Input
Amino acid sequence: MDSEQTTQKRAFHDNFRWEGVAHMPYKQDGSAPFKDISRQVLFQEPGMGCELRYFEMDAGGYSTLEQHEHAHAVMILRGCGHCLLGDVVVAVKPFDLVTVPSWTWHQFRATRGEKLGFLCMVNQERDRPQLPTAQGLAALKSVPAIARFLEG
Amino acid sequence: MDSEQTTQKRAFHDNFRWEGVAHMPYKQDGSAPFKDISRQVLFQEPGMGCELRYFEMDAGGYSTLEQHEHAHAVMILRGCGHCLLGDVVVAVKPFDLVTVPSWTWHQFRATRGEKLGFLCMVNQERDRPQLPTAQGLAALKSVPAIARFLEG
Output
C-alpha cells in the first residue's frame, strides 16, 4: 500500500521540482537554438493520449523557435515573460493559457528578469519539430515586434 | 491578427477564472454524489488525445466517489485537502501530482477549510464513471481512515 501511495502521489518540492521526477537540463553549446531551459516530464502514462511536461527557463533563457504539425496546450506556472505565437508576441503571467496550433512558429522567452516556467500538454505520438530556414527567419524578423523579441 | 491572439492566449483572472472559459457549477440536490464543485474546461482541442479541465470545490465540498477504466493525471493548483486513491487517503497541497490509475476508487475533498482546485488531464474519448454499490461502499468504509474521510 505504501509503495502504491508513493507512486500515485508525488509531492511538489521547493523551486518547482517534484518527488520522483527527473530534472533534465538541455545540453547546449554556442549554436544551440535554445538557452538555459530544463524539462521535467510530470505525466507519461500508458493508455493516455497525451503527456504533461514542465519546462523552465532561467532569466534571459528561451525555448527553441520551432513549428510542427502537433499542437501544444500550455499553462504558465511560474514567472512572467513573453511568447511568440505565429505572427504576434504576447506577454504571459502565471496561470495564463496559450494554445499553439498546428504549424505555428512559437518560442517562449524569460524576458522579465525572472524564471519562466510552464506546463505543456502534448500528444504522446507526434511529429518532430522543424526549425526555421535562414530565409524563414528573415521573414519572421521583417515584423519589428518579432525582431525585437528574437534579439532578446 | 487580434482575433487569433485572443483565441490563442487566454488570460488568467482573479479567483481562478479564465478569459473565454465557461464556469460550470454542477447542479446538485440532496442526493447528489458530489458537493459544491465546479468545472472549467481549459483545453479541448481537435487532434489532441486529451483535454485539460480545472475542478474546484468550496471548503467542505467534494467530488464524486467513482471509478472507471480511464486514468486521470491531476495537479493540485489551489488550496490543501485530501484525496482517496484506491485504499489510501493522502493529503495534497498546491502543485502536488496525483495519478489515478484505471479502476481505482477516487474522491477529492476540500477538508482544510479552504477551496481546493486541481487540473485534471484525461483522454477525450473515455468510458463513463461508475458509482459504488451499497455493498462496495460498505467495503470501502471498513477501512477506518476511509470511513473518516467519507464522513467528512
About this structure: Confidence is low (pLDDT under 50) at residues 1-5 of chain A. The CA atoms of residues 16 and 78 of chain A lie 9 Å apart. The radius of gyration of chain A is 16 Å. Chain A touches chain B through 48 residues (CB under 8 Å).
